[in-house]
Amino acid sequence: MASINSDEWKAICDKFTNAQNLTDVESRKDPENDPFRSKYKARELLREIYCSLKSFEASDGEEEIAEQRPPEEPVDGQREDLFGQGSSGDSPAGLRAAKLGAVEYYLGVNHVDTEELSAGQEHLMNCMKLLERYNVSSVNVSLFIHVRNQLGILWAGRDETETAQGFLETAEAIYQRYMKEDGSPPTDMTEYFSTEEKTYQERIKRFELAYTHTMYYLAQVYKNLGQNERAATYCHSTLQRQLKLNQYSPMEWALNAATLSQYYITKGRYMEGRHCLSAATVISGLAGEVPSEAAAQESETECERREQLRQKRAEIARCWIKYCLNLLQDTKKLLEDNIGELDNDRQEELKRARRLEEEEEEKGRKSALLFGSEDTFDLIASLEEKVSCLFPLDFAEARAVFLVGQNYVTQAKEYFQMDGYVTDHIEILQDHSSLFRALAFFEEDLERRCKMHKRRVDMLEPVCIDLNAQYYLMIRRQLMFELAETYNEMMDQKLTLANRQDDSQSLDSHTIKKFNHLCSSSAKYFQMFIDSLRSPEGKVPEHLEEEVLRPALVARFRVARLYSKLMCSTPSAQLDNINKALEHYKYVVQYCESHPEAGSTVETELELSREMVGLLPLKINRLKARMAMNNITD
């Protein structure tokens, strides 16, 4: 602007610098009862700059940029062509429009930050309108991207996800085309109001950071649209770019990488999941050591930092637990036969395939999306070597994965203790129990397998008994069901082991006592689950809610089978147990008859229950007849 002398321009630049300082620095010190004080001051300075620019523009005799209707927001699948129309963005008029547009942009962000969204949207759209007459160029491309980023955030916050998507995808397209057709480090917006130009490297970094924000926001948008694969891709690229640009908070970055790992795990992509977790662990270490309790007590800030570091590292540990658990469970699904035991033929088949796969592993490893820098690559790779990303195909390999998971269980429990984090602590215990269960599948020695299940009982039973049913009813039900199933597995394995060791048909009294104890314990916890569904007056519910329908009917079915399995020394005790079994079988049948929609949730159990309802009365009558005959004989 030729009519602005150096003193006037310096005054504008000083005001802009002050506005930036108020926004970025001073606002952090604002009191709670006046949280936007500094931003309101910054707003006034920006308005003064805007008025000055407009007055200089008018006094210079230039054509004022007319007020026009804002352009329509791009919709999903549509992108504006901003490269081949309008005047040159590098022209004096284009530069003037960019400067005025930048002030509108900063005013828009200011209003959004102070929760005045409509005013913020108006200023941001004014910025769009000022730029629309000019082609994208090195002078204005950064502003083109920034304003669309902000509009994307604004509309996403209103749950207008597709509108946000349109703005952000346009910003992405602008970046990609600019880099393809020009690629020179563009002018940064702050340079519009500065007497000094930024360096080549500073320009590149700030421009790349703006595009990184575009990718970050698009990851959120795609996640909200249910496009999880695209969301994961954009999230991964965002994390890579943050590391490359050295623009990240170590703990926040690490937590995001650990969270991304959980997506890869659910898709069976364990190489990527392991890489994310290894990078998360290494980068979280850059946040420094956890302050000692003594240091934390001396400073409130250190106390908060201590808690945040401990919590986030514990959360990363929990993600590692899920990695190990899912790897073992997915392998179990591959290797189990139709009765849930290890299929040796399938095991050998996968081992042969593994030998071929290992030859391709290095090639696949190089094609994976890698995190890190020269300082961290080796640390991440070293951590990856400590746990496999391949399916463990025998007990030794499964145990190695289990031990890694168990180590992270210990780490997670150090922070998520029962006193203060009841729900989290119990979830970690349940994962620990599941790790033992998954490992037991690979164990061929039934005695050792039983001991693993006993470890599960020992860690869950005290918690289940002590837990307050009023406040933690759903969690307590989960524990009851898991304990019942664990005792049931132990019972089946003890019986199988006893039959292997004793070729005779009869079992010794010690084995029978042990079997009955496990059988009764399983029935006890299933019954506790059933009783937890009763009303406060003790009545059985006429209608079972959807979330407990299947477990409630399965529990009834299992209790019935357990009563049928108990080994009794007297016919009267046997008759009593069969009658109890019949009662539970009848409940399953009658409930499904009165609630036909329930039958599809327990098809197998319902079919067997109907069969037993027909057979058990005959067995009861025969037993009664035999008892009567014995009485006559006696």
TrEMBL record:
<dbReference type="GO" id="GO:0021952">
    <property type="term" value="P:central nervous system projection neuron axonogenesis"/>
</dbReference>
<dbReference type="GO" id="GO:1990535">
    <property type="term" value="P:neuron projection maintenance"/>
</dbReference>
<keyword id="KW-0963">Cytoplasm</keyword>
<keyword id="KW-0175">Coiled coil</keyword>
<protein>
    <recommendedName>
        <fullName>KIF-binding protein</fullName>
    </recommendedName>
</protein>
<dbReference type="InterPro" id="IPR011990">
    <property type="entry name" value="TPR-like_helical_dom_sf"/>
</dbReference>
<dbReference type="Pfam" id="PF12309">
    <property type="entry name" value="KBP_C"/>
</dbReference>
<comment type="similarity">
    <text>Belongs to the KIF-binding protein family.</text>
</comment>
<dbReference type="InterPro" id="IPR022083">
    <property type="entry name" value="KBP"/>
</dbReference>
<dbReference type="GO" id="GO:0005856">
    <property type="term" value="C:cytoskeleton"/>
</dbReference>
<feature type="coiled-coil region">
    <location>
        <begin position="325"/>
        <end position="366"/>
    </location>
</feature>
<feature type="region of interest" description="Disordered">
    <location>
        <begin position="58"/>
        <end position="94"/>
    </location>
</feature>
<comment type="function">
    <text>Activator of KIF1B plus-end-directed microtubule motor activity. Required for organization of axonal microtubules, and axonal outgrowth and maintenance during peripheral and central nervous system development.</text>
</comment>
<keyword id="KW-0206">Cytoskeleton</keyword>
<dbReference type="GO" id="GO:0000226">
    <property type="term" value="P:microtubule cytoskeleton organization"/>
</dbReference>
<feature type="compositionally biased region" description="Basic and acidic residues">
    <location>
        <begin position="66"/>
        <end position="82"/>
    </location>
</feature>
